[in-house]
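Let us begin with a simple case.
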Amino acid sequence: VQLQASGGGLVQTGGSLSLSCAASGRTFTNWIMGWFRQAPGKEREFVASITWNVGTTRYSDSVKGRFTISRDRAANMVYLQMNSLKPEDTAVYYCATRSMAATQYNYWGMGTLVTVSS
């Protein structure tokens, strides 16, 4: 499994940014795609996830209402639309995946840096 995240950059507070994750290497039926982030000096944290089949989503409380995760099954792509960005959203963002039977995400892509200026 390979995951390639892209779309990071510098944005002002209140702005928007869209991240993309290209997934390859297998069919993702019955898998879950997730976005995580790690801010400087902090532990990696869960941001959002989506089930590949049905599209059921989950969000952390810190991004709920501002971020939207989606997937394009035909293109094997996962997206994270980030609106109303805050300086505390500054982090390296990672996409990850696991089977629904797994208890931990076991495939990770290289991160993409998002910087929100105040």
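The second case is a distinct protein. As before, the sequence precedes its structure tokens.
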Amino acid sequence: QVHLVESGGGLVQPGGSLRLSCAASGTVFAIKTMGWYRQAPGKRRELVAQITSGASTNYADSVQGRFTISRDNGNNTVYLQMNNLKPEDTAVYSCNIRGETPVPFAYWGQGTQVTVSS
């Protein structure tokens, strides 16, 4: 069984920074893509950022230039550095991992609350 454990959420003032972490525990092979999604109240879940095993990244337009995703393959961990946070970044952030070996798989974390408010 694979579990994703997230940490790093919290309350921060506009313009502040937070760093989210998500570590996968259990037996998992060849994680192809690791990503962060978020869902604000009354809104659909959206992709924030993702990174492939080859370190290719893509970001939502709304966070481009402010957020940075990275991964530690040796520890099956993905990070999201969030700078210059805005109130509209307030949401529950969840990590996701996907792969295809030995069979296609996808796992989600439980989510961590990020609140940007003065």
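The chain has a mean pLDDT of 95. The chain has no helices and eleven strands.
Keep these points in mind for the review questions at the end of the chapter.
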